[in-house]
Structures are given as structure tokens and as C-alpha cells.
Amino acid sequence: MQLTHYNSNFKQHTFPITLICDNVSNAANIGSLFRTADAFGIEKLIFSGNPIPFGRKMAKTSRATEKYVNFEWCENSEEALKKLKNLGYQIIALEITDNSTSLTHMELKTNQPIVLLIGDENFGISEACLKLSDHIIHIDMFGQNSSMNVVQATNIALYEITKQFRKE
Q1: Are 55 and 27 in contact (CB under 8 A)?
Q2: Do the Cβ atoms of 77 and 117 come closer than 8 Å?
Q3: Where are the domains of the chain?
């Protein structure tokens, strides 16, 4: 028998992960990030830059998860990163750079809370935010394209990060 969200036996769990979305602005992506945050049990979702586009498009992809996922909006990602870094969070940026490490080679300090930093759909993570990061990771790509949708990439990264937390 196929299970539904009414009869599945998944155990709820919150991981010490905060997802900071540096200028992510597409309503459908924002709705999907709420749903992703819920699915992976992250402690907080922080959006920066443009105000969150609450509306029909966002609500359609969020499937009402914005009603119970812990989130906030801030004007500036750098300030949020500095604050969390001072609280002991390790900052992991998901971006392809000349010094990024493959996600498959990432080893987390699971005794520290984590910020996963993702960037703007077109321009990625700002240079200022990259400089505040402790680690920059990328997802290996095997086709001709060098990037994927920000939500798809976030899902892949959160799967790997929560997998490492579950090994404890």
C-alpha cells in the first residue's frame, strides 16, 4: 500500500541547520524552499534582499509550509551571517568557485550548528557573503550545463548534510 502524509511513519526531527537565501527572489522557488525546509527539518529559513513575495505562486509551491516553518526576512545576508558566525555556526556556501570543494568530499563538524548559504537564481551568492563562508561546496555536474535550479541544488546539499548528522 502506498503511504500518504496522513499514514507515513516518518519521525519528526529538527537539525541545527539554518538556510540563508541570499537574494533568492522567484516566488515559486521561495515556496519550494519552505517545503524543502520542512522536509529536511531545518531549524530556520532566512530570506534576504527583496521582501518575500507572499502570493498565489508562492503558496502553490509551499503547500502551506510557510505557516509552520520558522522563517524570517532580513535586509542584508552579510549581517545575518556575521551574527550566526559569532554564535558558533559554521557557514557553508553552495556555489561553484575556483576553490570550492565537491559535496561528495565534504566532511562536516556535526558538533557545530550549520548555515547553508544559497544564492540568487541568476548571479549566485554575493562575493561579500562568500568571503564570510568557512567552506564553499559545489555539486559535481556531468552534463554540458554548469548549474541547476537553486531549489534542486539545495535539496541535494541538505540531503547530504542531514545524512552526515544522522550518522552521529
Answers
A1: yes
A2: yes
A3: 21-97+110-139+160-166
Give the span between the Cα atoms of 67 and 134, in whole angstroms: 32
Global confidence as pTM? 0.94
Residue pointed to by grid coordinates 533568492: 24
**pLDDT reading at 167 higher than 90:** no
Phi first, then psi: give them for residue 152, nearest 5 degrees. -60, -45
Report the distance separating Cα 70 and Cα 145, nearest Å. 34
User: What are residue 77's phi and psi, to 5 degrees?
Assistant: -65, -35
Q: 155 with 11: CB under 8 angstroms? A: no
> In the numeric block, which cell numbers belong to residue 156?
541535494
pLDDT in tens, 55-95: 999 999 999 999 999 999 999 999 999 999 999 999 999 99
CATH number attached to the domain at 21-97+110-139+160-166: 3.40.1280.10
pLDDT in tens, 100-119: 999 999 888 889 999 999 99
